[in-house]
Molybdopterin molybdenumtransferase
Amino acid sequence: MSAAAGTDCFAVGDHLMPLDEALALLAGRLAPVVTPEPVPLRAATGRVLAQDVAALCAHPAEDRSAMDGYAARHADLSADAPVTLPVAARVAAGHPLAAPVPPGAVVRIFTGGVVPGDLDTVVMQEDCTGHPDGRVTLPAGVPAGRHVRAAGGDFRAGDPILPAGRRLRAPDIALAASAGHATLPVFQRVRVGVFSTGDEVREPGEPLGAGGVYDGNRHGIMAALETLGAAVTDLGRVPDDPSVLRTALDAAADGHHLLVTSGGVSVGGEDHVRDVVADLGALHFWRLAIKPGKPAALGHVGDAAFVGLPGNPVSAMVTLLLIARPVLQRLSGETVTPPRRYPLPAGFHHRESGGRRTFLRAWVEDTLDGPVVRLFRSQDSAMVSSLGAAGGLVDLPAEAGTIAPGDPVAYLPFHEVLA
């Protein structure tokens, strides 16, 4: 893989690390671990482009009509009075005219039709008057080149159209197809194994039993990683047994670029993942200056990178979006850009953040005075319902004081980090 596995690239000091510092460390220490492959357009959506892509043809390839109407030579039109000219032919899209247009004549043309020869102007049919004898009257004062889409006006052969590192969306596929590409060079998907630990964890659909908890973390993590373009393997649940954990992790490392778990990496008596990962490779704690989600474990098991997320559901999801997401992006070759925050007025009171950058579950509500950000009723990191109720996160800097209604805050919608 990259420098990640074999050289302890995740190793850092033990200070409380600001999020921006953590992201800068990831940027400097991670590189793609996957190789390029050509895939057909139909399979390219959600994949990361491995090379810059240039157009194979011009678009449009010839001058095309932008309207239904009549194509004429501008020199045959008048700035002062309507002119009546013969209609020599009919041109529909996909049926270019083979013969030249006689001097002083026009052609009936439809949207997308190739503008013939030295004709250079299209007049909308609504502005023209047809006559029974086959002639048409065109209005005065039509500008030269009106309603003509010039050849290469969108792009020309050889023009760059898509940059390497882009995770391809439907509009990108449309652009590539319009530029003549049947296949695209993309990186293979990063293979990510996801597992959960804990004797109390139950699979949804099973009887819960006394002391049990359904495994929302693993399913949420897998869903997020798949949304972000990973090829995810469900490694299921592993009991709090060091020997079983060791066997499962050792086996998973061979077939994956990245392993992700939640919980089990703290210092509790049943947190065995920490020791097993350290024994099989390396494990480093990043004490992040964020709330929720201060602890994040990064390291490697064999040649697979390892990310250990907190066990509380909200902390796990927030840390996944803030830390595991850029890890995955860099391993996959995707260009990483900061997700956009939107400045909006607060619709809540909030006391000081206590010296840590704080992410509050929130949503945007339309009011008579415009949109405002509302907070979920409880910010307890175990409140799973808040993940469904929230539309995003309020991102408060560590130095933020008390927030009052109307104060501007930075709102990070989930669609900026899960799309």
Observations:
- The helical segments are 19-29, 170-178, 216-227, 242-254, 273-280, 313-332, 385-389.
- The CA atoms of residues 157 and 413 lie 38 Å apart.
- The chain has three domains: 19-34+189-332, 64-149, 342-416.
- DSSP finds seven helices and 26 strands in the chain.
